Amino acid sequence: MQLRKQSPVPNDLDRPFYDACNEDRLVLQHCAACNRFQFPPRAMCPRCGNPGLAWRDVTGRGRIQSRVVVYDSPVSTLIPDQPFNVATISLEVEPELTMLSHLPGVPVDKVPIGASVEVFFESTPATGQKVPEWRLVS
Amino acid sequence: MAFLISFDIDGTLEFGDPPGGITVEMVRRAQQRGFLIGSCSDRFPSAQRALWEAREIKVDFVAAKHMLPDIRSRFEATKYLHIGDRDLDQQLAEQAGFEFFWDHEGVAEPWLAWLDEHAD
Amino acid sequence: MAIPIAPYAWHRNREGLGIWEGRGRVVATGVGTSPTARRWDEKPDTSMGALTIAAIRRAIEDAGITPDEIDGIVLTPESTTGVSNDPNAPAPVGWDSVFKMVDYPQAGITRGDIDWILLNMPELKNVEFKMNGPVCMSVAFTTAAEAVSRGLTKTCLVVRGWHNLAGRYYVGQGAAARDTAAGPGKYGSIWGMPACATTAMVFEEYCNKYGKSHEMMAPFIVEERRNGLMNPDGYYTQHRPEMITVDDYLSGRWIAKPANIYDNDLPIQAALAVIFTTPELAAHHKQKPVYILNHAQTRPELQGAVPALNEWERASDRMGRMLYEGAGIGPEDVSFENMYDGFTLFHQFHLEGLRFASRGEKRGYALDLYQTDISIEGPNPVSPSGGNNGNGRTRWWNHRDCILQIQGRSPSQISRKAEIGISGAHVPNYCDALVWAASAD
After folding, report:
1. What percentage of chain C carries pLDDT values higher than 70?
2. At residue C384, what are phi and psi to the nearest 5 degrees?
3. Nearest C-alpha neighbor of C170 from the set C284, C83, C265, C69
4. What's the Cα-to-Cα distance from C190 to each of A76, C39, C157, C193, C242, rounded to whole Å?
5. What band does C67 get if pLDDT is binned at 50, 70 and 90?
6. For testing the chain C interface, which of B12, B44, B48 should be mutated: the one with the most C CBs within 10 Å?
7. Using the beta-carbon criterion (under 8 Å), do B46 and C38 form an inter-chain contact?
8. Side-chain-facing half-sphere of B89: CA atoms under 13 Å
């Protein structure tokens, strides 16, 4: 089941990320000086201050690092779907870089910690803007 | 057959924090008319019991808000009602098979009409 | 003129800095705590600003000094982590007949403001040093410690007020009520996580790694509430003197499993003021001076959408090492710890970073420690203040109690001799912490 996420509104800084999502691609900012990916998008590398971060395509493969089950969300559009999973995904390309997922199709409380996942892109209801989501790799 | 009413406390009952519109007198009246009454709130069960005892009301149950299904299984009733002030109250009530009234709807004591509807 | 914020150069945020230059040159004496309330009833005399003024007057009285001795204020202007009014919203009707107004209309209502305080406390006529310690009162404390140690102020108020407006804290309000998400929060908010969920995720990872469980939190929760209910200034003592039981805790409704409702602290209105000064000037203060031996900071590494266990463990380990290095002490010297607890599920990260009550363990031992005697009467008093969980959300009960414990007048005074205590807030990778001591020796 697809949850009714809010539609993120891109800005100048993160438009490359969201435009890529609409093309079913995952891109992340990379700092050449630190040789490190990072997310969410920022104007400069939070480690070294390098303002010249480059957008790079990444595979979007990762593993489930942790999870919660949300029973009391502040977000109105998601309240009817409670309870639902939210998992942290540790990306293969940068294991300390975490992204979030509802893990569509994975029953509540049945999140397999450590399992491999791959990215796909999901349209959000309000504007159609796509966002990254993850599914288990069989 | 009995009717069961579960009251949320904070934002619903007059002694909640914030106070709600449902008065102790309304609760007492429901109990006197034969309703099974109690509270399902985010206050600890032991604290809920103390709040009722301070008002000299002997309730049939106290429970955490998400334990409405347990209340339904413990008590046999014709109708089950939960009164609260949050979307979450409504969601938990409906998931547990309770009817739901918002706190402001409860002020008119609509449950009293059930007695007439089921008079025979 | 805009009030400056604490200079970044004052941060002690790396190892190898040696003993803190200000060690033994700054002490805390007077403490003033306002009454508490669950929410603001929109009357001027119960506003966050009014509570702040009350706390300041109590701190000055408690120190046994006169207002004209105060020459500095360091304040945390943010006064909630929940909902605020629009910054330009006018003050309620009648406000200006009680308080003098500064240009910022929400001063004293949903934001602390040093100039507003000075305008409404004419007795503070000698304040020359003014600085904001943003976000958390921990920042105000560390900033004031630096300011006094550098001679920028001799007798300084450290102040923070908290407001809590009517209505729900943020659930279904403001940005959360929309079907689109803008601003920096969008990277996390579209997944609908309540505030405690990040902590719950790291706690879950911790439990998976070390074979622990949420149930093991229960003794800590119960002990904190017990400690809080000894505090006459705490919210629960004043308004809901309800002791929580293990069964109560374990029956709590999940908010973001494994965080339940009782792992979340209750937003309140309250204010605290503390007097910092030099040991020399403290000689004529009424209260015993409590020395600040060191302070330190951690800040997030900002690599992912949410922090992971590795980052929190690295940060809190580093915090422990930095604090001990600059204070010239070790974990074995610490009588008690009052690290932050709102949310309760990250207290153990702080505790383990300090290696508090460690018998050689480094990580994964705190929840086992919670199953032992962690009471104020026992050998390893954990969070004797009761923290936010025992007193309501302020992020300062823990600091306050370090001062009171060492002065020997805490309402939840530990049985062992309180010689050195540590307090810090808030999350493990965004933390400002201090080492407090009975003497500089």
Report:
1. 99
2. -65, -20
3. C83
4. 11, 28, 41, 8, 36
5. very high
6. B44
7. no
8. 22
Does the beta carbon of C239 lie under 8 angstroms from any beta carbon of chain B?
yes
Do residues B111 and B37 lie in contact, with contact meaning Cβ atoms separated by under 8 Å? no
Omega of the bond leading into A112 within 30 degrees of 0 (cis): no
Chain C residues within an 8 Å CB radius of A88: 201, 205, 304-306, 308
Reported ipTM: the value is 0.96
DSSP C162-206: E---SS-SSTTSGGGGSSEE-STTHHHHTTT--TTHHHHHHHHHH
Amino acid C56 reads I
Q: Which tokens belong to B116?
A: 């007439």
Residue type, C148: V
Record the tokens describing residue C197, joined without a space.
């969920």
Q: Are C437 and C406 in contact (CB under 8 A)?
A: yes
Length of chain A: 138
> Model confidence over A10-49: pLDDT tens digits?
999 999 999 999 999 999 999 999 999 999 999 999 889 9
pLDDT at C173: 65
A74 touches chain B (CB under 8 A): no
Judge: B66–A71 Cβ closer than 8 Å, yes or no: yes
How far apart are the C-alpha atoms of B50 and B45, rounded to whole Å? 9
Whole-number Å distance between alpha carbons of C439 and C43 = 43
Please write the tens of the pLDDT for every residue from C30-50: 999 999 999 999 999 999 999
Q: How many CA atoms within 13 Å lie on the side-chain side of B84?
A: 25
How many Å apart are CA C350 and CA C361, to the nearest integer?
A: 14
What is the CA B113 to chain-centroid distance, rounded?
A: 16
Contacts of A83 in chain C (CB under 8 A): 254, 257
Task: Find tokens 């266990």 and name the residue.
Answer: C309
- B10-17, Cβ contacts within 8 angstroms, sequence gap of 24 or more: B10/B41, B10/B42, B10/B43, B10/B85, B11/B84, B11/B85, B11/B86, B11/B103, B12/B83, B12/B84, B12/B85, B12/B103, B12/B106, B13/B39, B15/B51, B15/B55, B17/C38, B17/C239, B17/C240
* pTM score: 0.95
Burial per residue of B3-32, b for 16 or more beta-carbon CB atoms within 10 angstroms, e otherwise: bbbbbbbbbbbebbbeebbbeeebbeebbe
